[in-house]
Design a protein that fits this description.
35 helices; alpha/beta; single chain; six-stranded mixed sheet; seven-stranded parallel sheet
Length: 990
């Protein structure tokens, strides 16, 4: 569809959604829109103006007032006004002062609000543009104010990002001033894609990471533009988007727009409250929102709190967290997101203050308090029958049964809503979800209202996947060494040699893990920070001392909270923390926290600001840098910094707490510099690998909210793959294999050392695009820890990247830039925003749907070419997986499979083949060692990966039975057991 026809189709759809098309104000200069707005001002303010229309002088005064809007943030505050009505001050020619009403945020799809659409408006006097005029596609007006700007692209001719660059150019030209300063949201539409984003504060702040698509209530992407217009640009949806769903960010002088899942979650909570109001009842369990860590729960929860506080029947909102430091952090965020008129209605309180505050008869407030503080107030006599709402952050851990029961009894007319990234579930054996919980988030808060999982967030690019490395000690690897958990803890994990080896590993790899991307042969150091999570306060103090001794060049801090278990040596631990605070004060020249009323809180506040590079540590001054922070439990939840790219773990974790800790690393920043969040496990590598996989199962699939749920049969449509693209980083060896043909082609085009410029324009276009992709991929490899020029194990062989060193990569980058400059503008590659597709762990489920389609195509027509297509697709998989797919291909050829596969049936088929192959391997191995195959296979059926023989009595007994049958001597039993278990480990490992 040609672009002009597509634009007409968009306008027709908008008209069907309630917008009025103004033909008289389309195809005109922007001055005409000022005239139109003037007419609307006169109509909407007829009584205020005593029927006397604005004079030229008065309207000019109003237009001058608009020039105060330097950013969309300023314009949003003007639109919001006070009490939901946006106004502009005016002094009339006769000296009378009044406020002109310009916008009605509360009058959605009614009252004074007018909804109009214009197109092809021309700007012919842009002060900052070299062009004589600019023409925009479509503008949406509410009460004459242009609040939304749409650019369309014919996706058969142009990439959608051309429109993004166009918006940026318009901004740089100075278009968004005066009347157009009210543009809050920008839209990119083509026939088969639709995106939106909040207008940035200036042309330098345009960032593709904040361009969002839309998902429906079921989590399905909406790529049909007409459906997108209905969902997002219709009335009242667009009016809500530019009012209710906008977040002013005072800390950054910026404007944020909520994503679809945030909007839907907010609406679900408000709908629940309205349902109760309409039925004149109070339900204590309102429901919970499951939005994965890093997806913006703070923004969502604040917007919900603000909207609930504005509901006529709600007297107050209590926002509950479980740590004092999070109360202050949340308060700062809430203040930053609040409109000026709302700032004084947000208060941090303790139990005693809350008892006094709840007696007020003023407008509703948002009170921030810890769960401990609220419980303490209840124990000391707090009672209230006010209609209130409790919003609980980190609901998976904040709500203990006893405290909640007491609070619910003391506040009987209070409804509870929970926000969590990792809900508590009961086990779900049908979906292979195993948890250790005896109470679920549902039990505390009621039904799940909305879900946005880690899989969704990675797919949307809102958080990163994980690059995970597992280590084990020589004691764990040596099967002859039989140590219990307590002995391992005492003899290994708390030993000086083990902790020294951890510090040495962190120190030796610090440059690689903390540096930025390679630019012209150089990696800029110290671009990222890390966390070290250890098991207990004593370990925090011990590691801090070791870093001072073994790695004094690193800037390290430590912290733990009063809430954490003290164990033995409490006085010593306080002394250690005090010394660490003194070290910190001297190192950075801060004020003396030790003299503060609450030294620990002041110290922690400074640490978190420093490692997140928030004011006053946001100026890029290296003297402000903090490299590593050592913690036990503190900061493993609720703390965000996009500059943390790695967490080292010397502790065992599982389920929700494990995902929470890992998620400290996965906030997005430059994808070339930080393609994944890195996680390094120093204890029990095998066990932690299982724990990570199980946790990802739980928080991509979800478990049972109630015990009764476990009895339900699964819905086939809800069966999803265990790991989706991007959750875990691909193996380095697989990435090198993927890069080999691309690097070889680049060398064909530009020479072995990338010293030549390709001659033809066709080759230059190919080289520029491919070189940009290779450069990004190599940067990801380096960030993952690969050292160029080194060989990597690939089974019995070794592979090395075709780009051998920084100098060769620098030559590629230089030639890439040279070639790109030679190309005409419309054919140049955007070097700064190459889209990076994240891949799943070990390439096991890369493009799994594509594999299904290829196998089904081969089932339809068993030709050599179609079989070759499948084999080419699975080349990057491990050998066992390739063999499984090969078996499927053979069975298709033999006519065994007649019905098309889907992802679930293919998974089941592969699982069956794998089981059969493993059985055959066990029998072969037993025969080769002169053992009875039935006995060895029977033992294999009781084998549990990662579980020691001493902890697996069934397997232990079976092996003892075999030893008796074979009359294996006492001194040979250990060798026998070790060889059997080693083989079981080998064939079971994936």
């Amino acid at each position: 569809m040609a672009e002009d026809k597509f634009e007409q189709a968009v306008i027709e759809k908008l008209k069907s959604e309630g917008w009025e098309y103004l033909s008289d104000y389309s195809g005109v200069t922007v001055d005409h829109l000022y005239d139109h707005w003037r007419d609307i001002l006169n109509q909407n303010n007829f009584n205020r103006l005593d029927g006397q229309a604005l004079s030229d002088n008065e309207f000019n005064q109003v237009c001058i007032e608009l020039m105060k809007n330097k950013t969309p943030y300023d314009a949003q505050l003007m639109l919001a006004g006070a009490g939901g009505v946006g106004t502009i001050p005016l002094t009339r020619d006769d000296g009378t002062q009044l406020e002109l009403e310009i916008f009605y945020g509360d009058e959605v799809a009614g009252g004074h609000s007018r909804y109009e659409v214009v197109n092809q408006v021309t700007f012919n006097d842009l002060k900052l543009s070299l062009s004589s005029k600019r023409r925009v596609d479509v503008v949406l007006l509410i009460n004459g104010l242009p609040v939304a700007h749409i650019e369309e692209k014919d996706d058969s001719l142009q990439n959608q990002w051309t429109a993004f660059e166009q918006f940026q150019k318009y901004d740089g030209d100075g278009m968004y001033t005066g009347l157009f300063s009210f543009v809050q949201v920008q839209f990119i539409l083509s026939q088969n894609s639709a995106h939106y984003f909040a207008r940035p504060k200036n042309s330098q702040s345009y960032n593709r990471d904040f361009v969002f698509g839309w998902r429906d209530e079921k989590g399905q992407d909406i790529t049909d533009t007409m459906q997108f217009i209905h969902d997002v640009l219709g009335i009242p949806a667009l009016h809500r988007l530019v009012t209710v769903n906008m977040i002013p960010d005072a800390a950054n002088d910026n404007l944020m727009v909520m994503r679809s899942y945030q909007i839907q979650a907010t609406r679900k909570i408000l709908d629940r409250m309205r349902e109760m109001d309409n039925n004149d009842l109070v339900e204590k369990e309102g429901g919970y929102i499951w939005h994965t860590t890093g997806s913006g729960k703070t923004v969502t929860s604040f917007k919900v709190a603000q909207l609930l506080a504005a509901m006529p029947r709600v007297q107050d909102v209590l926002f509950i967290v479980d740590r004092v430091d999070l109360v202050n952090q949340t308060y700062e965020n809430f203040q930053s997101f609040a409109y000026k008129t709302f700032e004084n209605r947000i208060k941090v309180v303790n139990g005693g203050q809350l008892k006094r505050e709840l007696k007020h008869d003023q407008m509703s407030h948002i009170y921030l308090i810890t769960i401990q503080g609220l419980d303490k107030a209840v124990k000391s006599g707090l009672l209230s029958k006010h209609r209130m709402v409790i919003l609980m952050d980190e609901a998976h851990r904040s709500a203990s049964g006893d405290a909640v029961a007491r609070i619910k009894q003391a506040l009987p007319r209070t409804t509870w809503f929970g926000f969590t990234g990792t809900p508590n579930f009961y086990s779900d054996e049908v979906h292979e979800v195993k948890t250790s919980k005896d109470i679920s988030t549902y039990d505390i808060f009621g039904p799940r209202l909305h879900r946005y999982t880690i899989k969704d967030a990675i797919g949307d690019g809102n958080v990163l996947g994980f690059d995970v490395t597992y280590y084990e000690t020589s004691y764990e690897a040596d099967k002859k060494v039989k140590l219990s958990e307590k002995e391992l803890e005492k003899e290994v994990y708390t030993s000086a040699p083990f902790r020294q080896s951890v510090v040495e590993d962190i120190k030796n790899n610090w440059v690689s893990n903390s540096s930025g991307p390679i630019e012209m042969g150089v990696r800029k150091p110290n671009q990222f920070q890390g966390m070290l999570a250890v098991s207990g306060k004593q370990a925090v103090a011990a590691y801090y001392g070791l870093f001072k001794q073994l790695a004094p060049e690193l800037r390290v801090a430590m912290t733990y909270s009063r809430d954490e278990n003290n164990g033995v040596g409490t006085a010593d631990l306080q002394s250690f923390l005090k010394q660490a605070m003194q070290d910190y004060i001297e190192a950075y020249g801060t004020h003396d926290f030790l003299t503060d009323k609450n030294p620990q809180r002041a110290y922690l506040n400074d640490i978190t600001k420093r490692i997140a590079r928030k004011k006053p540590y946001n100026k890029g001054d290296d003297a402000d840098r903090l490299d590593l922070i050592i913690v036990s439990d503190q900061l493993l939840t609720g703390f965000d910094s996009k500059y943390i790219n790695i967490i080292y773990m010397d502790k065992l974790m599982k389920e929700g707490p494990l995902i929470q800790a890992m998620s400290r690393t996965n906030r997005t920043i430059d994808r070339t510099a930080k393609p994944h969040g890195k996680v390094r496990f120093f204890r029990k590598g095998e066990l932690m690998e299982e724990n990570v996989k199980n946790a990802l199962v739980i928080y991509t699939k979800g478990g049972n909210d109630t015990v009764a749920d476990a009895e339900k049969l699964p819905d086939d449509s809800e069966q999803k793959e265990l790991f989706d693209d991007g959750i875990l980083a691909p193996k380095i060896v697989d990435q090198i294999h993927d890069l080999e043909p691309q690097i070889e082609r680049l060398q064909e085009l530009a020479g072995e050392d990338f010293s030549q410029v390709p001659k033809s324009e066709k080759e230059q276009v190919e080289f520029a695009g491919k070189a940009a992709e290779v450069n990004s991929a190599v940067q990801k490899l380096v960030q993952q820890g690969y050292v160029m020029g080194t060989e990597v194990e690939d089974g019995d062989n070794k592979v090395v990247l075709g780009i051998k060193d920084d100098r060769q990569l620098s030559a590629l980058q230089a030639r890439m830039n040279d070639v790109n400059e030679l190309l005409p503008p419309e054919k140049r590659v955007d070097m700064t925003n190459i889209e990076i597709k994240l891949h799943s762990y070990a390439n096991e489920i890369i493009d799994y749907d594509v594999l299904v389609d290829l196998l089904n195509a081969y089932m339809d027509e068993t030709t050599h070419d179609k079989r070759q297509a499948v084999e080419n697709h699975v080349k990057s998989m491990d050998q066992d997986s390739r063999e499984e797919i090969g078996e499927v291909l053979n069975d298709i050829e033999a006519g065994k499979y007649q019905e098309h596969f889907n992802t679930e049936t293919l998974k089941t088929t592969r699982k069956k083949i794998r089981s059969e192959q493993q059985e055959l391997k066990v029998y072969r191995w037993a025969a080769n060692h002169n053992y009875n195959g039935n006995d060895i296979f029977s033992a294999y059926q009781d084998y549990l990966p990662g579980v020691a023989l001493v902890d697996n009595p069934k397997l232990n007994q079976k092996l003892q039975d075999v030893e008796q049958k074979l009359d294996i001597g006492f001194f040979e039993t250990a060798d026998f057991e070790q060889s059997v278990l080693a083989y079981f480990d080998k064939i079971n490992y994936k």
